[in-house]
Each structure stands twice: as structure tokens, then as C-alpha cells.
Amino acid sequence: MFTERTSVGLDVHARSVVAAGIDDRTGELIQQKLVPDPGVVIEWLRSLPGPVAVAYEAGPTGFGLCRAVRDAGIRCEVVAPSKLARPAGDHVKTDARDALLLARLLRIDELVTVRVPTIEQEAARDLVRAREDARCDLTRARQRLSKLLLRYGHVYYGGKAWTTVHDNWLRSIRFEGPERGGTRAAFDADYETVQLTLTRRDRLDAAIAALAADSEFTPVVRRLGCLRGVSTLTALGLAVEIGDWDRFTGASIGAYLGLVPSEHSSGESRRQGPITKAGNTHARRLLIEAAWHHRPTYRVGPTMRERWELAPGTAAARGHAGNLRLHRRWRSLDARKKPTTVSNTAIARELAGWCWSLATLPEPSA
Fold first, then answer.
1. I need a labelling partner for 356 at 20 to 30 A (CA). Which of 11, 173, 226, 272 fits?
2. Quick count: other Cβ atoms within 10 Å of Cβ 280?
3. Cα gap 336→328, rounded to integer Å
4. How many Cβ atoms are within 10 Å of 131's Cβ, its own excluded?
5. CA nearest 126: which of 32, 24, 236, 23?
6. How far is it, in rounded angstroms, from Cα 281 to Cα 242?
């Protein structure tokens, strides 16, 4: 509930901050253009009739300004841009109008805020996203290399690609003739890109393994690892992307991650469409990939037993129950001839609920 005297909206950009403040007692509008320096912004906020509350949209400038304002003792909220209510007939958009809209919505508590991570949590999320970038870069580099070879009739038939045997085959390729000099240079460049990206990915994997083994995320990572398809990388990715699991319930976390069907209903008509794909894209992709692992027959292997040994007994038992349940769901959906992509999305939605139940599981008493 808004209890402060002055509400302030900030339209934050890389090189400027446009501010608009509304005095709740006098109705006075105060506008100012500032440099994007937290010290300057805080000094201006302190010059306003207090107490003051501030809001600005989440964006590429990060959360540094919010942390600085909060450390100065001023309430600051970061707003989800996709949830910002704008008048349907408003066709004029400027920085000053955006800041004023934020100030007005803050006064009437009509803003949907986002969670501001700590510096340590944001650093862990940067690491996980850097690894995701490396995965995408490696996929593109391998595709470029394989398609270059395909144009010249070099196709690998020796088994699975991108193994040691495949790498030896790549090294043995020769481009004959003087006209092939440019092709050879292109091949060397693409091959070098693959190797460098692979080295970068492996380096990030080692950093993620070290973080997962000894950090504030370790208990959650070990509990999530009790589920099939949730390896260290997936568990840490979900832990840092979702952060505070207590914000959700087993039913609401699927909607937060955009794994629920879209809907357009009116009167007695109800029409559902594809999933909303709202919320965190990276966490949703991790769950979609993990859900595929629940389709094959469930057998408890040595890898799963090793994960269970690192987690509390209650988490291991709950993970086992989740694995059984999700595999039964896969069999049920297959029996109903559902498309596999539709079935996998449904499993991913339920998997999100099982992850939530493990992440919020109380720690065993000593």
C-alpha cells in the first residue's frame, strides 16, 4: 500500500534518467532530467517532500540503481514492463510521459514488481546465462562447419558426430587444387571457432560445478537433482533464475514460467490456445528439455543414487515419487495419442510443480 508523500517515476536509459514526482498532498508535479549516476538521482530524491517512493521499469541497465536507492533508505520498486497498464487511446510516448505514468500507477498501487536479486544471485545468473550463450554459439559454429563440408561432399558416416572419432575425421579432410585455398581457410576458421567455443563451454561448466557444490544454492541444487533430467547445470539454472521459490505454489509456478495454455473466453465460450510463453525463457527451456527424460522406462541407476546420497532422505523419497508420477503421465498421454510436443509441455508444467515442492522442502532438523 502506498503510504509515502511523494511518488516518483523514473524512465532510466544508459545516458539519461527522466524523473517525474507527484506530491500527494499538494498535487504538485515535479519533473527533472538527470544523469544516470545513482548519487545524483539519490540527491534529487532527497530534495523532494518526504517520504518518497520510487519506481522504474526493468531493463538493460540492471538493478544497481534500485540497490543504491534502497541502501539510501528510500523505497524503490522495479516494474515488469510487460505488465505495465497503459491507456488504450494513448498514442504519444515520450520519456517524460512514461515517468509520469509510473509515478501515477505507483500512487494507486497498480504496478507489478519484479524480484530484485542480490549481487551474489545476479553474478550466479550471469554465469548460467554465459553458459547458455556458449551452448548456442557452439551449435551455430558446428552447423556452419558441417554445412561447409556438405557443399563439397564431405559427409561423416562413422557414428555419432562431434566425438573424438569425428574430430579425427575432420582433421583428415583435405581440399585439393589451387582453387581450394579459400575453402581451406574458411574450414580452418570454422573449425577453430568450434574448438574455442567448446573450450569456453567446458570452462564455464567447471565454474558452474564449483558454484553448485559450495554456495547458497547448493541445498536447492541437490534437492532438485533428485528428479530425472535435472542435472547440476539444470538445477543451478532453475535455482538462480527463479530465486525465491516461496513466491509461488505448485499450481502458480507453471503460469509464471509460461507453461499454461493461453485462453480467450467470453460468456459461455471458452477457447484455449498455445502456452503463454510468459516469464523466464531460460528456466522454461530447461524444464522442457528435462521433461523429455521422463519418457523412457524409469530405472534407478547409479547416477540417480549418487544424487540421492547428497540430498536429504525426504528429498530423495519425494524425487522418486515425482519420477514415477511423471513417467506414468507420459505413458498416459502416449496412450491417448497426444502429439509428443504437447505431451512434453504438459510434463514440463507438472515437473515445475515437483521442482517447487523440492525447493521449498523444509530442511531436516539436526
1. 272
2. 17
3. 13
4. 19
5. 236
6. 11
Percentage of the chain with pLDDT > 70?
99
Tell me what percent of the residues of the chain surpass a pLDDT of 90: 76
Could you tell me which of 48, 37, 39 has the C-alpha nearest to residue 9? 48
Give residue-wise pLDDT tens across range 180-207. Answer: 778 888 999 999 999 999 999 999 999 9
Nearest 10 degrees: CA dihedral of 303, 305, 309, 314?
130
pLDDT digits (tens, 9 = 90+) for 113-155: 999 999 999 999 999 999 999 999 999 999 999 999 999 889 9
Amino acid letter, 318: R
Q: Which amino acid type is present at position 141?
A: A
| Helices 340-359/232-242 angle, 10° precision | 70
C-alpha cell at 310: 547428497
Q: Does residue 36 surpass a pLDDT of 70? A: yes
Alpha-carbon distance of 237 to 280, in angstroms, equals 11
User: Residue 339, preceding bond cis, omega within 30 degrees?
Assistant: no
* Amino acid present at 16: S
For residue 39, the number of C-alpha atoms closer than 13 Å in the C-beta half-sphere is 0
Please provide the average confidence, as pLDDT, over all residues in the chain. Answer: 92
Four-CA torsion 260, 266, 267, 268, nearest 10 degrees? -50
Domains of the chain: 6-107 (3.30.420), 119-215 (no CATH), 219-359 (no CATH)
- Report the SS3 class of residue 7: strand
CA 158/CA 219 separation, integer angstroms? 42
